[in-house]
Amino acid sequence: MIPFHFFDFVFFLFPFVVIVLILLRFRSKQKSTKEYFQAEGSLSWFVAGTAMVATTFAADTPLAVTEIIRGQGIAGNWIWWYMSVGGFVTVFFFSKLWKRSGASTDLELIRLRYSGKEANFLRGFKAFVIGFLLNLVILGWVNLAMLKIIPVFFPLWTASHILVYLLLFGVFYTSIAGLRGISYIDVFQFFFSLDRLYSFCLLCYQLTNHWWTRRSKIKTR
């Protein structure tokens, strides 16, 4: 077991400190419901797009994608790539219509488009299936991945306890950040994770290259 050193704790706590600073930066700007849910429609394409990508990059993503490629090859990723079609249509076509309607949520959009008992049933059904059942599956998937990752970094601590603390922190900052704050937090987390990922890949390459070099020298002798 490799113990945590000072810089290990620095890199572990650094994202939490940045998240708190972003919260303090954007918390004072939330003066309306539209600002909280829609950021007044003033997010740049880069922030909005990166935040959308970062939302799909959770703790379970590397594990899931690795398993899919290992079992089904690259083409197996179409199990979730197909959603990109809906994303493109939403961004380049439906987004303009949505903004013109003035609706804040998709359920509000249904209320504006349809009426009667059928519309109420559709709203309730959508809220239950997507807002409840689908989110339970996603949360279970992500939390299960975290329960597998946490013991690697903290073998002496109870993984479920750490997971609860992380969940409480997540609920705290997502409930008060609003769309603008969450989007900027997502952008930070996305590039921070990419930086750590590339650093880890470089380290693995250097170690592997060093090992192969030593092995080739041994064979030569």
What proportion of the residues form beta strands (DSSP E)? under 5%
Query: How many domains comprise the coordinates?
Result: 1
**Helicity level:** over 70%
Annotation field: number of helices: 9
Sketch the major β-sheet: none
Q: What is the rounded distance between the termini?
A: 35 Å
Strand tally: 0
Family: Belongs to the sodium:solute symporter (SSF) (TC 2.A.21) family.
Protein name: Transporter, SSS domain protein
Subcellular location: Membrane
Organism: Leptospira vanthielii serovar Holland str. Waz Holland = ATCC 700522
Please describe what this structure looks like:
It is a multi-pass membrane protein. Belongs to the sodium:solute symporter (SSF) (TC 2.A.21) family. InterPro entries: Na/Glc_symporter_sf (IPR038377), Na/solute_symporter (IPR001734). With 221 residues, the chain is mostly helical. It has one domain. Helix content is 83%, strand content 0%. It has helices at 6-27, 33-38, 45-56, 60-72, 78-81, 83-101, 106-113, 117-153, 159-220. Helix 1 crosses helix 9. The radius of gyration is 22 Å and the shape is globular.
